[in-house]
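Q: I have 438 residues here and want to know how they pack in 3D. Can you give me a structure?
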Amino acid sequence: MDWLLEWVRDWAAHVHWVHFLTIPVFTGVVGWLINWSGLWMLFSPVHFKGVRIPGMRELASVLPRKVQEVPGVLQGGIGWQGIVPARAAKMGSIAVDKAIAKLGTPAEFYQQLEPDKIAEHIVTVFRPELPQLVDDVMRREHPRLWRDLPRPVRQAVIDRVQAQLPSVVGNVTTEIGIHIDQILDPKIMVIDHFRENPALVVRIFRDFGQRELNLMVTFGFVFGFLLGIPVAFIDSIFAQWWLLPILGVVVGWITNALGMWLIFEPPEPRRILGIPVHGLFLRRQDQAAEVYARIIAEDVITLERIGDFILEGPSGDRTRQMLATALRPAIEKAAGPARAAVRVAMGPARFDTIRDSVAEEAVSRTLTPFKDPEFSRRQSEKIRTLIARRTKELPPRDFVEMMRSAIKEDEWMLYAHGAIMGLGGGFLHLWIFGVSGG
């Protein structure tokens, strides 16, 4: 034991104390800078910033896979895009697989929107448009007959069509509900919206996690400082010029890794060395669920976007055909007792053409109220409530995977960035203070 005390006294007598004490301070500051700049790398810029290099796209295809993952490389550019917005579509895909698919089926989402109220709103909005719709179709398909009909008779036709409107609209909303699983795909809907609006994914993190993200930056200094203490001892003992840069790489890598661990791990509360630990995001899963649900209900799965998707999405043609088929019988009834005589007067083909034209024209107009922003906002509250409740019920591991999916495979870039900054910090300290003992 005496030899150890003697060695400590000798070390203390010869150590360069300014050099020694500044190392933890340096690693602490570098750790803070690593996590601060790493946070910037995660979220900024929302869109790719850089320059396009001729031939870069072709070259990228033969580069290592990890290099190809750097934002912009596969697109033939040198620059940067925030990791989270660059992977927005991927996060949308995993969010659906891990969360939204478990939150509810398309039918559940549709029922939350209260089809009966949608039908009532459609009738209210569509009724004033019906006279013009009937008039336009009749003037196009059978102008002479429509012109020759006495005004009271024309009005009677319009009145009968309007009287059929609640039944027609009921058929439409019922038919949508029956086939909603075939005509509405939440996964495509979410992926496309996230891809087109990468800032939305950034907002999901920022709105509920800014406090934790700021804490991650602060802990960058704490982790860096603590890791700098053993680095200072090792450097003072061996006094080699290359030690600080090499150990800086280790400190930078570990600092970023600890920062990510602090946010997401462990998913469930546990004790490590008697200290309770729990991922910072996971501690506020309920609050996060409310924020996530609000954003999804207000910006992603809305009545407006559902209406757009079922008419203009991949199954749009099928939806229009299905709804037109549902509308035809009700429209035909509008001719009333005179239906047979009108069919004879016009000819069966012409009568069927007019009926089909009214049905096809009515499809788009019938769903126009889906795009009423105020009505959509009121109905979105039902979706928000459903998503919030189900997200709170998610197992912590699934919740972590949903939130971490946008960055999981790209975290190596953050760690590499930390290692490079640690290397630079080591060289900077070496440049200012020289080699320990030198």
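Q: Anything worth noting?
A: The two ends are 29 Å apart (CA to CA). The beta strands are 49-52, 77-80, 270-272, 275-277.
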